[in-house]
Amino acid sequence: MSSKARLFLVSLKATVSILVSACLSPPEQPRVEQPPSADAVQPPTPASIEEKKEPPAKLPTPTGADVRNAVARMYKNAVLMDSERFCVGDFHGDGIQDVAVLVRPSQGSLAELNSEVANWILEDPKEIVLPDPTRRTQVLSHSEPTRVEQSDTLLAIIHGFGSAGWRDPGARQTYLLRNGAGANMKTQLLTDVLRTLQGNASVRLRGDVIAESISGEPGFLYYTGAKYVWHKISADKTVTSKQNEQHFL
Questions:
Q1: What is the mean pLDDT of the chain?
Q2: What end-to-end distance do the CA atoms of the chain give, in Å?
Q3: Do the domain assignments include residue 13?
Q4: pLDDT for residue 50 is more than 60
Q5: Is residue 16 in a domain?
Q6: 188 falls within a domain
Q7: 38: which DSSP letter?
Q8: What residues pair up with 232 in beta bridges, in sequence order?
Q9: Which of 79, 161, 84, 86 is nearest to 122 (CA)?
Q10: Residue range of the domain that includes 204
């Protein structure tokens, strides 16, 4: 037998042996995943469970000394508190407590109070004209800058900052309003005033308001997001808020 024939027979036997082994081998069984141990199973956290947040700390009842310190911090010696007349509320509409207090100019401070670079915003809420929401085209009128006189009684409003509100040293935004000081000043909650307005589209409130009577006319001061504006209302629609009378001293 030639060498080529012998090599062919050897290759044929090897091929037949591999085929026979494959036919005789049992088929591979499917792998079954074993269940995890009891220690490895952790119960899922219910989706309805949320982290509970601590409610904001209740601020102490304000005193005349607290307000006097805030006024001195903001205005230095430019104004003095006019008796102990003030009220607190969220006038800014940001959830932080603000304070409104009656003040009067100190002697020799008119130049500082009327300065264009003062740290406060000096305005007359009765002179501010708001855009008419029913008109697409608005005509803006130019008004002269507000000027403080020595005999004026002014309303200072200090916007709060942080959890301490207007008491916080970081509270730096303040408004000084001429013709904004009135009688029977008190805070009225936003919800109370909205019920009284009954959908009045001309008044868009952001927070609580300062209710009072100016020159015998009842109304309230409210914040527009940039300015404080006077809104006059009839006497029979004036809302009283017993919840906030304790803030008036």
A1: 78
A2: 128
A3: no
A4: no
A5: no
A6: yes
A7: G
A8: 219
A9: 79
A10: 64-247
Note whether residue 42 is domain-resident. Answer: no
Number of compact structural domains in the chain: 1
Label residue 106 left, alpha or beta by phi (over 0 means left) and psi (-120 to 50 means alpha): beta
Cβ proximity of 164 and 59 under 8 Å:
yes
The alpha carbon torsion through 165, 171, 177, 180 (nearest 10 deg) reads: 10
Amino acid present at 144: E
Cβ atoms of residues 83 and 185 within 8 Å: no
Q: Helix, strand, or coil here: 40?
A: helix
Residue 117, burial from CB neighbour count under 10 angstroms (0-12, 13-18, 19+): exposed
pLDDT tens for each residue of 238-249:
443 333 333 333
φ, ψ of residue 55 in degrees (nearest 5)? -65, 155
Please give the Cα distance from 146 to 148 (Å, whole number).
7
Using CA atoms, how far apart are residues 4 and 10, in angstroms rounded to an integer?
10
Which tops the pLDDT comparison, 219 or 196?
Answer: 219
Q: Are the beta carbons of 64 and 72 closer than 8 angstroms?
A: no
Report the pLDDT value the prediction gives residue 54, as an integer from 0 to 100: 47
**Given CA atoms 113, 115, 117, 121 in this order, what sign does their dihedral have?**
positive
DSSP type of residue 36: P
pLDDT greater at residue 116 or residue 129: 116
